[in-house]
Amino acid sequence: MTGGPKGDAERPVRVVIAEDSGLLREGLSRLLADAGFEVVAAVGDGTRLVAAIEEHRPDVAVVDVRMPPDYRDEGLKAAIEARGRVPGLPVLVLSQYVEEHYGAELLESGARGTGYLLKDRVADVPEFVAAVRDVARGGTVLDPEVVGQLLSRRWRDEGLSSLTPREREVLALMAEGRSNRAIAETLFVTGGAVEKHVKSIFGKLGLAQTDTDHRRVLAVLAYLRG
Amino acid sequence: MAVGPNAEPDHGSAAPLSFARLITAAGFLLTSFPLGIFWFAVLVPPILLGVFLAAGWVAVMTLALALLWWTGSPLRRTLGHGLALISAPLAVLSVRGAQVERRRLAGSLGYPVPAPYRRQPQGTILDRACARAEDPAAWRDLAYLLLLLPVGALGFAVVVAAFVAVVGTMTLPAWLFVGFPDGAPLWREVRIDTLPEALIVAVVALPVSTLAAYLLIFGVSRAHATLGGALLGPSKSARLAERVEVLTESRSRAMEAAIAERRRIERDLHDGAQQRLVSLAMDLGMAKEKMAEDPAAASGLVEEAHGEAKRVLSEIRDLVRGIHPAILTDRGLDPALSALAGRSRIPVAVDVRLEDRLPEAVETTAYFVVTEALSNAAKHSGASEASVAVWREQAPEDRLVVEVTDDGAGGASLVAGGGLSGLADRLSALDGRLFVRSPKGGPTLLRAEIPLDASGETYRKS
Q1: C-alpha span between B19 and B155 (Å, rounded)
Q2: I need a surface site. Which of B28, B398, B425, B445 has the fewest CB within 10 A?
Q3: Segment holding A141, helix H or strand E
Q4: Angstroms from B319 CA to nearest CA on chain A
Q5: Phi and psi for B186 in degrees, rounded to 5?
Q6: ipTM, 2 decimals?
Q7: How would you write the pLDDT of chain B (462 residues) with one tens digit per residue?
Q8: What are phi and psi of B406, to 5 degrees?
């Protein structure tokens, strides 16, 4: 799932970037353009983000949490507002810190096409580009750190404590939004082994098996947020 | 939460008006009168003697001073000392009496009065007696002991009257047969002359007289206690002086804590991020050199630099979060503490019961109490789990309470220069307090209390 210009045939993925630091805004634009995206707008604050989204109707918005005027969580609020106006808008939020709480707020505004990543992840270009594409396609991508917080919050949970260490690893990767194939690649195991683990996890946690990766992520997240 | 909200006893309990308290209050009032007589008898002669001696001393010294004034001789000060010496026995006696009274007020009325005396100097008995005589608190003690006579008489009268009223109404029917064969006079022409009438009046009047007696005794003992508090306790200026002392000390401790914090940040940046950036720049510099002749080596160096850059990022992120977590400002204590617990190396249960956001300084301090406690638990005590409880309580004062417990080895203490004493310093800037209960073998309980009344009137409570 590496991003190449040939990824989506004729039409490139259209993206709006909101990032207040000029340096990083330019860098992100260049990075995404290099990877074959079409950057239709790059703005520096929440108000302009909402306006740009209404104007361009992009396939995905990449948004920094902290922006003017107060440098708190304007980006998150603007993203949630934009989703109110353009329902189903895929949003990938970047943050200097990821906090499970922010992730939860974002997921509440709609879990389809939602990403929440630590800003540092930009440094791993292929993974980052894949995440943007995933979100644009309606997938859910959560930073491992958020998943870690979710898991540790529920440390006393009976279902969770019955999982084997390997199953916990698989569960964490599922919560991050990885597909079975991606999980298999990360853990250096076969796809069949992953499927077996997934089945066992769903059984132990009492979750209904679903066919699509996306609904599976939602089920796991719903369970972790309990 | 297994931890109760009271890790240490609180003063100022509001006990109900029980019968036992009524009896002790009545006993207090009854004994005040003879004590008043006693102290009056003991104190008045030395007062008179003192006045007489002082007048003589002043007369003699005035004469001497007139002669010495122009020389500016240090003998002038002898005048003051002489007066102090004359009044010293009286002052010492008053202080003794006041100490007994303070014990009585606390014991019988449940009204603790803190001793207001200045610190006694080292030296001979004479020096100490002189210091007593120069302490205004000793003279306020004397005033109280003299007032004990009229106040005690009033209290005595009230108790006797209340007793008579209650017993009188209870025995009303009997009077018909003993004292008033023609009927008891009730009001002008109205007389009680039959037994049923007497019973009815007794039944109606008994609750009234009992209640009146009850209220009178409590009212008078309360008034007595208030007088005791005013004269035997620290005066307003003494309280303010003590408050200034506390504030001066806490200010300098807060300053030191802030400076120590800056030093820590400097050290962290210098030892961590800065070194990593140097190594990163070095890798990139070498890669630039090798780019043309040895692209494979250059690529390896760039790879290394990339990893180094990511580590710097995560290190700086942790550092910045340690200075002030953004989520605390944005969302408040509950989410911030939950996130902190989520990052902790040991499992942490968080229970935050707050309805409103609190002042930023309070939230930040509470947050750092938990940070420090959890990092201690994870690093030093070898705990396998911890729990955090935060709540606001109204009594005995409006305050925020933060409790962190862990099941580690215990033995934590407030040693100077340690992390916990740094916390105590930060808390003292907000008039907060830190309690540590950490027996060897654990468990450890850390409790911080931060007052929330912004009126600045906290000195009243200490």
Answers
A1: 18
A2: B398
A3: strand A140-142
A4: 11
A5: -105, -55
A6: 0.74
A7: 333 333 333 333 344 567 788 888 888 999 999 999 999 999 888 888 888 888 888 788 777 777 766 565 555 555 556 777 778 888 888 989 999 999 988 888 888 888 888 877 777 777 777 788 888 888 889 999 999 999 999 999 999 988 888 888 887 777 766 666 666 666 666 666 777 777 787 788 888 888 888 888 888 988 998 898 888 888 888 888 888 988 888 888 888 888 988 898 898 888 888 888 999 999 999 999 998 899 999 999 999 999 999 999 988 988 888 888 888 988 899 889 988 888 888 888 889 999 889 999 999 999 999 999 998 888 888 888 899 999 999 877 899 999 999 998 888 877 766 778 888 888 988 889 999 988 888 799 999 999 997 544 443 443
A8: -140, 160
Tell me, yes or no, if the two domains B247-323 and B327-461 fold the same way. no
Q: Are B87 and B55 in contact (CB under 8 A)?
A: no
From chain B, pick out residues whose CB is under 8 angstroms from the CB of A152. Answer: 341-344, 347
Residue type, B38: F
Which helix (H) or strand (E) segment is A18 a member of? strand A14-18
A102/B327 CB distance under 8 A: yes
CB atoms B342 and A149 under 8 Å: yes
- Which residues on B lie below 8 Å from A148 (Cβ)? 342-343
CA atoms of B127 and B124, how far apart (whole Å): 5
A152 in contact with B at a CB cutoff of 8 Å? yes
CATH classification for the domain delimited by B327-461, as one of 3.30.565.10, 1.10.3720.10, 1.20.140.10, 3.30.300.110: 3.30.565.10
Q: Which runs of consecutive H residues, i.e. helices, occur in B347-391?
A: 360-379
Q: Chain A partners of B343 at a C-beta cutoff of 8 Å?
A: 148-149, 152
**Closest partner residue to A153 among B306, B309, B338, by Cβ?**
B338
CA neighbor of B84 nearest in space, from B126, B43, B49, B134: B134
Distance CA B120, CA B88 (A): 14
CATH T-level assignment (fold) for domain B247-323? 1.20.5
What the block records as the tokens of B198 is 């007497």
Q: Is B339 on the interface with A (CB under 8 A)?
A: yes
Give the sheet arrangement for strand B399-406, strand by strand. Answer: B348-353, B386-393, B399-406, B444-451, B433-437
Could you state, in order of their start, the residue ranges of all structural domains in chain B?
A: 19-234, 247-323, 327-461
Q: Do A123 and B310 touch (CB under 8 A)?
A: yes
Domains and CATH numbers, chain A: 14-142 (3.40.50.2300), 146-225 (1.10.10.10)
